[in-house]
């Protein structure tokens, strides 16, 4: 609430004998209950008196687009249920409360207290500004990890976890790719098995080649023996 009303800031109308007009600025947000302050001195006014609230600047008499009238003791006319007087009327508190404020409630409001006598009415114009509530647009955090492709290349991200795999043949890679390990221990076991296969594979190949050569020599000697017996 930014009140600009003070004794030194009274703004008079064109006539030097006219009533003084006080101005203030009230800010609020959509959905809030906004209170526009207005009060008068009951003793100086000669007792409790009538007053009105209206939209627009205060005219020379009464209120334009009146929204509330009070006889000083109670509300006698109310044109919108969202506009109420919740202050203590007999003590001069005639502040206007806007319930569940909307953007359309922005604008100028006039508080007119009718004080007996010529040009004695207490006038105050209040600028009301209702703004939309701010909505947070912060995006959620995204967490990603490093992925290893079939060719051994890696893609970097905010959190990286690199694994080094032993070189395997294309056939072994196709077999192991279909069944990923379910835990870190399983990954270690698979790695050990692959290393054992890669180490023992050449020796087994050499043994099988020697066996094939021996069988071939035996077959040749047997054929030569049979041929010699046949010729004899």
Automatic annotation (TrEMBL):
Family: Belongs to the immunoglobulin superfamily. TIM family.
GO molecular function annotations of the record: phosphatidylserine binding
Record key words, sorted: Disulfide bond, Glycoprotein, Immunoglobulin domain, Membrane, Signal, Transmembrane, Transmembrane helix
Spans through the membrane: 210-231
Locations listed in the record: Membrane
Protein name: HAVR1 protein
Organism for this UniProt entry: Bucorvus abyssinicus (Northern ground-hornbill)
GO CC field: membrane
Membrane topology type: Single-pass type I membrane protein
GO biological process assignments: apoptotic cell clearance; cytoskeletal rearrangement involved in phagocytosis, engulfment
InterPro entries in alphabetical order: Ig-like_dom, Ig-like_dom_sf, Ig-like_fold, Ig_sub, Ig_V-set
Entries under PANTHER family matching the protein: T-CELL IMMUNOGLOBULIN AND MUCIN DOMAIN-CONTAINING PROTEIN 4
Ig-like domain residues: 19-131
Annotated spans, Disordered: 140-162
Principal cellular location given in the protein's record: membrane
């Amino acid at each position: 609430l930014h009140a600009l009303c003070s004794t030194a800031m009274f703004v008079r109308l064109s006539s030097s004998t006219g009533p003084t007009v006080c101005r203030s600025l009230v800010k609020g947000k959509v959905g809030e209950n906004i209170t526009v302050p207005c009060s008068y001195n009951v003793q100086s006014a000669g007792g409790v008196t009538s007053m009105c609230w209206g939209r627009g600047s205060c005219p020379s008499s009464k209120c334009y687009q009146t929204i509330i009238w009070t006889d000083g003791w109670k509300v006698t006319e109310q044109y919108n249920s969202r506009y109420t007087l919740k202050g203590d009327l007999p003590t001069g508190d005639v502040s206007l409360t806007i319930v569940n404020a909307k953007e359309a409630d922005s604008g100028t409001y006039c508080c007119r207290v009718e004080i007996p006598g010529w040009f004695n009415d207490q006038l105050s114009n209040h600028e009301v500004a209702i703004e939309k509530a701010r909505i947070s647009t912060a995006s959620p955090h995204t967490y990603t990890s490093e992925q290893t492709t079939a060719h051994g290349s890696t893609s970097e991200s905010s959190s990286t976890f690199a694994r080094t795999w032993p070189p395997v043949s294309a056939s072994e890679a196709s077999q192991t790719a279909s069944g990923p390990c379910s835990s870190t221990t399983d990954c270690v076991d698979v790695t050990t098995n692959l290393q054992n296969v890669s180490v023992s594979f050449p020796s087994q190949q050499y043994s099988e080649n020697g066996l094939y050569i021996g069988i071939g020599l035996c077959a040749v000697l047997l054929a030569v023996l049979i041929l010699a017996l046949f010729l004899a």
